[in-house]
Amino acid sequence: MGFLSTLLGIFGFGIGTSIGLLIGFFLFIYSKPKTVKLNFLETDKTKGFTVPNKVTDMMVNSQQETGFLYSRKCPELQELKFHVDNGVVFRLIYEPVPRPLYELDNDQLLDILPDIPLWVKCPDYERVDWLNKFVADMWPYLDKAICAQIRSATKPMFAEYVGKYQIEAIEFDNLSLGTIPPEIHGLKVCETNEKELVLEPAVRWAGNPNIVLTLKLLSFRITVQLVDLQIFMAPRITLKPLVPTFPCFATVAVSLLGKPDVDFGMSILGGDIMAIPGLYQFVQKTIKRQVASLYIWPQALEMPILDPATVAVKKPVGILHVKVVRAQKLLKKDILGTSDPYVKLNLSGERLPSKKTTTKKRNLNPEWNEKFKLIVKDPGSQVLQLQVFDWDKVGNHDRLGMQFVPLKFLTPYETKEFKLDLLKHTDSYDPQDKKQRGKIVVELMYAPFRADSGKLDGTQDGYSRKESGFDRTSDSEVFGGAGLLSVLIQGAEDVEGERHNNPYAVVFFRGETKRTKMIKRTRDPLWNEEFHYMLEEPPLNEKIHIEVMSKRTGFSFRSKEHLGNVDINLTDVIHNGRINQKYHLIDSKNGVIHVAIKWVTA
Q1: Is the pTM of this model over 0.85?
Q2: Fold (topology level) of 318-425+436-448
Q3: How far apart are CA 533 and CA 375, in angstroms?
Q4: What is the pLDDT of residues 570-581, one digit of tens each?
Q5: Are the C-beta atoms of residues 385 and 348 closer than 8 Å to each other?
Q6: How far from the centroid of its chain's Cα atoms is residue 418's Cα?
Q7: Dihedral of alpha carbons 97, 99, 103, 106, sign
């Protein structure tokens, strides 16, 4: 009997405790404190201070007997001490808080340090009150625009769950970001060598959103409300690439420099579920973990602004290997019944000079067997144009015929032979032109650039494993293979001549000389001109020489002037695949030139 009573007592205690905790929990969640208006008629006569009328609508908890109050509406009231007796404030004391920083001790400084704007703590952050004013004035319209985007973006997501798990509908009853706009506590503009603009604002938002989501499940209607949202974050906004088309950037990339601080309350069926012990910390960690996995730098959310097809600058993607083999039964253009043929070849959409074969004198069936390499930027649309001419010593050269080959017919790394009938024109078919103009035979092979160009083949330290041990491989073995060297001369700064400032850049490499256009009357020219060199092997241990010159526009005996030069070692380019740096010019006081060099292999 004693054992049974003990067992029942323990069982009853457990049930009673559980029911008591459950009832207390629901009372804690659903109970709402009584709110009263502060009576600000009482003042502290010793201080002679009267509270302004614009804070008389401030509400406090009637369950508090004493406490402190901070007014957002009236910033000059830093701290108010009050005493409540039966819902009536009968004493109010004004205690000003602002004091010089040197009067605060270490603990007080540490307490206020998170609230100090970044433009005060960090000299590279700028104060942007004008931007906050702009956002505040635009916020009512931004609120509606952002909410409309949220509705359109979430509608297909909600539609995926309708019909599943007995869910009948998911929709927003209310969707508003409130009346309080976010504030930017500082803005940092970062300079890079790339064609981009990087902004790093410090954003704080303690908003009053009204977001109510309704879930219709069977015959139940469940409402979820988001309240008291606070977000502190430091995003990095990158506008790239900069293009000469309004708004002058094609994409906006947003990433976070650190985990954001997000605080909010969530009410389900009128109850604050964030009051459940342990749930608040779990939700905070989950949000930070999910956001970090998606948007923490270097990961980013990219939003296209302009159509890539309209602003994209086509870059080389491969090399077309062309072998002009022979021609047969060409037209007779000379008086003696022969011709002196040669072939010009180029790719459509290119402004580069055409490649030429040698001239075969007095030959209607010439054999060339000459090889050429052409840079391919768009294999899907570019066309190889072949033109056969008769060389004449005097006057224009006569065209014997022409033909074209679309690159889309080629398979990468596969050599294909074409036997083509020469035509008078390739743009249209002329039924009256029945003259046989001969044939031309060419071999074509398209080699796209490798995705891992510029990376080491094998281990990072350049060692390869052999049976006899570890032997260091030579650079030619590691980085061997033909490729394309691209040299982009972006611009220069502080180049100054003694007599004139009309700068242009000259590039010297392997006996070739290439120059940019001349910019008149400037010390900071911007060229943005790119030169290409197709090489049979990587230019290891070689240098490229760049000179900045100035030329007088009028007649003068000393029309050219040397403004500076630089030698760039290409070894780093081959090892890293690409460099983008500013180099100080030799023989120049403050001159700097901005050069980007890239090496890709086929």
Answers
A1: no
A2: Immunoglobulin-like (2.60.40)
A3: 10
A4: 998 988 889 999
A5: yes
A6: 43
A7: positive
Q: For 253-309, how does the pLDDT look when each residue is reduced to its tens digit (9 = 90+)?
A: 999 988 888 888 888 877 777 777 778 788 878 877 887 778 888 888 888 888 876
Q: Give 378-399 pLDDT, tens digit per residue.
A: 898 899 999 999 988 777 888 8
Those residues with Cβ within 8 angstroms of residue 570's Cβ, 6 or more apart along the chain or in another chain: 485, 539, 540, 541, 542, 543, 544, 597, 599
- For the chain, domain boundaries: 123-308, 318-425+436-448, 483-601
Which SS3 state, helix, strand or coil, does residue 51 take?
Answer: coil
Among residues 324, 256, 325, the alpha carbon closest in space to that of 290 is found at 256
Residue type at 469 in one-letter notation = G
Q: How far is CA 505 from CA 490, 500, 587, in A?
A: 10, 15, 15
Q: Which residues pair with 91 in a beta bridge?
A: 83
Return the CATH number of the domain spanning residue range 483-601: 2.60.40.150
Whole-angstrom Cα distance, residue 14 to residue 19? 9
Which residues, other chains included, contact 588 with Cβ-Cβ below 8 Å and sequence gap of 6+? 494, 495, 496, 548, 563, 564
Tens digits of residue pLDDT in 15-42: 666 676 666 666 555 555 544 444 443 3
- Greater confidence, 160 or 70? 160
The reply to whether domains 318-425+436-448 and 483-601 share a CATH topology is: yes
Of 455, 446, 467, whose CA–CA distance to 316 is shortest?
446
